[in-house]
Amino acid sequence: MRQLLVYTLLRLVVFAACFGVLYLLFGSYVTGWAIALLALLFSSGLSLLLLRRQGAEAGRVLVGAAAAVRGRIDAAARKEDVD
């Protein structure tokens, strides 16, 4: 689960950097909400480009965790069927 935390923190850093740059450039012209929305759009694209490897690792962790939960549910269902 460490990979998921690292990926999330890196995405937050990318968002904060985008927000900061946009605020410095356009802060006196538009509201903070508009800057936040633009930063969200830009950071999404940048995250896809810059954090591809970390995203793939986080995805593998999530798939493994989902498989483990699915296995526990199936085992509990089989045990219940026997009873």
Notes on the structure:
By secondary structure, this protein is mainly α. Helices cover 90% and strands 0% of the residues. It has one domain. The chain is built from 3 helices and no strands. The two termini are 35 Å apart.
User: In percent terms, what proportion of residues is strand?
Assistant: under 5%
Which spans have pLDDT < 50 for at least 5 consecutive residues? Answer: none
Q: What count of helical segments does DSSP give?
A: 3
Rg calculated over all Cα atoms? 20 Å
Largest sheet: none
User: Which outline best applies?
Assistant: elongated
Overall tally of domains: 1
* Helix/sheet category: mainly alpha
Distance between the termini: 35 Å
**Beta strands, count:** 0
Helix proportion: over 70%
Average of per-residue pLDDT values: 91
The H-and-E topology, N to C, reads as HHH
Keywords:
transmembrane helix, transmembrane, membrane, DUF4229, elongated, mainly alpha, about 80 residues, about 90% helix
